[in-house]
Amino acid sequence: MHSLLRRQINRFFGDASRLPDELKKLIEAIDMTYHQADIDRAMTERSLDIASQEMLAQNQLLAEELKSRQSAESQLMYLTNYDELTGLVNRNLLHDRLKHALANAQRHQHQLVIVTLGLDHFKVINDSLGPSVGNELLRIIADRLSACVRGGDTVARLGGDEFALVLTEQNETYPHDDNRSKEQGSITFYPHLIEILQRILAAVSRPMVLAQQELEVTCSVGVSQYPQDGNDPDTLLMNANAALSSAKQLGRNIYQFYTSDLSTRLNEKLTMQSRLRLALEREEFVLHYQPQVDLRTGHIVGLEALVRWNQPDIGMVSPGHFIGLAEETGLIIPIGAWVIRTACAQCKAWHDQGIGKFRIAVNLSVRQFGQADLLHFVSEVLTQTGLDPEYLEIELTESLVMTDVERSIDILRGLKALGVQLSIDDFGTGYSSLSYLKRFPIDVLKIDQSFVRDIEKSDDAAIVKAIISMAHSLGMHVIAEGVETEAQCKFLRHNQCDEIQGFLFSRGLPKEEVEHLLRKKKQLPHRLLYFSNHARTVLLVDDDVNILAAFKYLLRNDNYHILTAVSGQVGIELLAQHQVDVIVSDQNMPGMSGVEFVHFVKNKYPESVRIMLSGSADLSSVINAVNEGAIYQFMTKPWDDVQLKHHISEAFMHKELADENRRLYLEIQSKQFSIVKDRRQSNGSLP
Predict the structure, then answer these.
(1) Number of other residues whose CB lies within 10 A of the CB of residue 529
(2) pLDDT per 10-residue tile (average), the chain, 687 residues
(3) What is the DSSP string of 276-297?
(4) Distance, CA of 676 to CA of 661 (rounded, Å)
(5) DSSP assignment of 52-117, as one string?
(6) Measuring CA to CA, which residue among 662, 669, 687 is closest to residue 477?
């Protein structure tokens, strides 16, 4: 019996055993009820206990979730305003701080300076040493920049390798003499600001060791100032970025202040970019073709395709004004593809018309060279146009192929496997390694026009000679670009350059004009070729016109082409215009002496034979010239007519024998060249 029921019965009836029988069944039912109540109460308590535990656990989960959410919100707030890599202010918070700084500057009439900074050639470090090294470099630069400014200034990372600094209250930093502003053109600046910028450049460029390598990184800096360069955050940042772009274009590792000219140039650039995007769709690009001429035959053996932009509002735009922008924006890829397709199709059309068999040369840009489907594209163009691969020459710059040598070798070998010709354009202006150059399957080296331009007046002559000799030893042809004068052509011919290209023969011409030139079979003048047949030519140089007249009379019946000059300078001008075999020069002339003249001629026209006449008692300089090989024969004044004629005749025979020896040498060299070239082609390139 339930204990509670027993106590109640004992209380009211005494002993429970004495209960009447008729009450026992009732008592048993009540007892069961009591027991059931206990069971129900226990179950209820258990349920409440379980519910309480569940509620406690749920509350703990909610607390943890709330804590996690608060942490996430805090992290999100941090990432919204700070750069995760460097811990610096990011672009979002920079904009907010710049607004507050501007409001404070306006209220207190302070100067405010915005500096944007980009690391020079950061991509090279990131690509070569890996992103982890690049990230560590960015963290170091962030710390260095923070150390360059005061606590109230802001240093931000804009993204990539670009940073920004907000320098506040600049005109109160130095209250004495340094507080006075100065004018530089249209730029107002404070002297201490220059010190800050120089300190930033020095801090960034301080050497550091990363990945066991010592690195020295430089930066370019753009500066805008409130109030002269803008009065809102967007304008000031935009103008600072314009100054930064100018600093990069001017050679990097410098700072540039914003000027109104920069804004004008930037707007022009944006306008040009917009027009450039539409140019392909509107078919505004055209090709001009510049002939390449063989110095042995004088015939046109190739054409270089040069893209021009026929802009309706501007007129004909040269590549120098838009190719850089096309490279920068990536538009060079579709433009370059159009150039290759159009040039190949036009070359094939000329071949089919029977105008001649010549190659077409096209330039390949850095972005095009980096495309994964380059080989497929070139092969597709050749198939679609029907042009034989041997008539397509692809020009690449020195710096392009040297950026990633092993990859370049693979691509060049792939192009050679297609059967096309390969050339290095602007050779001598880059940083080619000769050990790598011999591994490239290159057919042609093109000497840059900067070496050809002053070939008669500078040490560039030695560089040109070295390039020609080296190229021939590697089995490569040589084309000289920018040939504008006969003197340049003669020098190149004498030093066995294979072909020339330049205004001396023709500028770049539209399709119709170059086709007319091809149909006329225009050739280089015979006097400029390797072995031209010309009349025996003698140049007489003397400041006395009577002596010149006597010379001409003496030689009148010898069937010579006689040229006369009253000074060494006039003689030099005649040498540039005529192919001269023998030179007879006086020693004593005003301005340029005879010895000085023949020394010049020896260096520039070494194939000529030089005879010196002198009535001077001081013959030391003449004897030195003879010993140095500048003079073939020396005679004193007055001369013996028979003897002089004999010496001139011997000089012509000496010249003709030397020409014949040179011709034989070139024949031998040509055969050797063919052997080396065949070996290179069979091996793909030299090992």
Answers:
(1) 19
(2) 69 65 71 80 85 86 82 72 89 90 88 92 86 93 92 90 88 40 46 85 92 89 90 91 86 85 72 81 92 93 94 82 82 93 96 93 91 93 96 88 81 93 82 69 90 77 87 89 90 89 95 94 86 83 92 90 94 88 91 88 86 72 70 84 91 87 76 70 52
(3) HHHHTTTT-EEEEEEEEEETTT
(4) 22
(5) HHHHHHHHHHHHHHHHHHHHHHHHHHHHHHB-TTT--B-HHHHHHHHHHHHHHHHHHT--EEEEEE
(6) 669
